[in-house]
Amino acid sequence: MLSPYLPSDVVQNILAYLPVKDIFSLRRVNRSWYSIYEHAIKQHISLFNVQAFVRIGPQKTPVEAKYSFALDCVGFGLDSRIFTFIPTVTAKPIYCNPTRLRQVKVEFGEWCGVDTKRHNGNTGPLENPLDNNDDEFSVGPFDRPSDPPAHELTRYANSKVHDQYIEAVRKCYYLEETPDKDGEIVTYLGDKDMIIKCKIKDSVVPEEEIIDAEDEEEEDSDLNKFSSFEVEFIKVRTSWLVGGTTRKILPPEFHKQIYSSRYDLLNEITLSNNIHRYNHYCPKVLKWILSESNKNDKETIQLCQHLRNTNGDFTIRDKFESALEEKSIEKQKMWKYSFVSRFFSDPENSSDTFEQILDRFSRSEESQENTRVPNTRNSKKLPWPLKIPGFS
User: pLDDT of 203-258, one tens digit each?
Assistant: First the structure.
């Protein structure tokens, strides 16, 4: 009689043909599946060439290929449980105005709403890109916008848009380090389950402009200089890959700590140096996490000194998240509104203060809650039934 159980390698090959979300969901079928599901995910990514994407600057529709490039998965660490992505062989540095450089978005090809057809080295047609600008999401205009149905429909539609947001897709990161004029730096950005290492150069002339330039134009080449942005690698945990495959708000504990043993060591070191709070994802901490530095190394001493001097090296984004937690608002929701990401991209030159942005966010969330839970006493007074196709 044949055994009812398939060998693990056969199960892994079968799972690899499912989307990442489904492989993750099926991991608890039995113990042997749990031990191979990440290998099945790596096999799936290779089979279907599922890529990660890095885009810089404010997000627009259509996505501009010159501000985005793709990365291929090249490995999975058996001990670290970390997937590594590097730029495709056709990827070129991103050249842009320095003011555009700070905002970075990192995405995975199987996330809901991610456009995978347009990036540096591949300019295929767009398919339903997800717009990150909430100012664009509105219903109207109406011939008589004062009519109750028009007002109610607009409010309802806008609330449904924000109900359907996906944190992983809308989330932005901000480069805290940029090079001096004519300089070059290697810097890092990251999150609980993701780290990027990148290189930025200032005052760079794009290669194609050097090739196309005539000899007599060389004296004007300074006018064509940009900043360049390159990614060396992205390292992620499985929770990052899965994080954007659902429209549900995932709890913070869903995301698993990348390089947890290194963070455990750093927590021990900082506590012994009377540093009780610090930004786990500032560039200097991420650089130390990726290194092999130990307790008494010069690099470790310098990091501790830096964290003391900067009171933990917290950013304005950290301050905003802390303020949301004090108001009992889930910090993931901060990415629902594009005015928040615009403020973070250049807070020093914003026309709004931190307090104004926080107040606007709080009022927007309160309005959302009021829309989501209508006042039945007032709704009875409406002389018309609101029926929306697909929702009624």
Answer: 887 766 544 444 444 444 455 678 899 999 999 999 999 999 998 888 889 999 99
Q: How many CB atoms lie within 10 A of CB 226?
A: 20
| 8-14, Cβ contacts within 8 angstroms, sequence gap of 24 or more | 8/32, 8/35, 8/36, 11/36, 11/40, 12/36, 12/39, 12/40, 12/43, 13/43
Whether the per-residue pLDDT at 264 is higher than 70: the answer is yes
Q: What would the pLDDT profile of 352-368 be if each residue is shown by its tens digit?
A: 999 999 999 999 888 87
Contact 201, 228 (CB under 8 A): yes
**pLDDT-based confidence at residue 116 (cuts at 50, 70, 90):** confident
Quick one: which of 379, 327, 380, 389 has its CA closest to 358?
A: 327
Cβ atoms of 225 and 206 closer than 8 Å: no
Domain segments of the chain as ranges: 49-127+167-254, 260-372
Backbone angles phi, psi at 96, to 5 degrees: -160, 170
* Cα dist from 55 to 173, 213, 229, whole Å: 10, 28, 10
User: What per-residue confidence (pLDDT) applies to 179?
Assistant: 87
Q: What is the pLDDT of residues 285-312, one digit of tens each?
A: 999 999 999 998 999 999 999 999 999 9
Task: Give the per-residue pLDDT at 287.
Answer: 97
The 3-class secondary structure across the chain, one letter per residue, is CCCCCCCHHHHHHHHCCCCHHHHHHHHHCCHHHHHHHHHHHHHHHHHHCCCEEEEECCCCCCCCHHHEEEEEEEEECCCCCCEEEEECCCCCCEEECHHHCCEEEEEECCCCCCCCCEEECEECCCCCCCCCCHHHCCCCCCCCCCCHHHHHHHHHHHHHHHHCCCHHHHCCEECCCCCCCCCEEEEEEEECCEEEEEEEEEEECCHHHHHHCCHHHHHHHHHHCEEEEEEEEEEECHHHHHHCCCCCCCCHHHCCCCCHHHHHHHHHHHHHCCCCCCCCCCHHHHHHHHCCCCCCCHHHHHHHHHHHHCCCCCCHHHHHHHHHHHCCCCHHHHHHCHHHHHHHHCHHHCCCCHHHHHHHHHHHHHHHHHHHCCCHHHHCCCCCCCCCCCCC
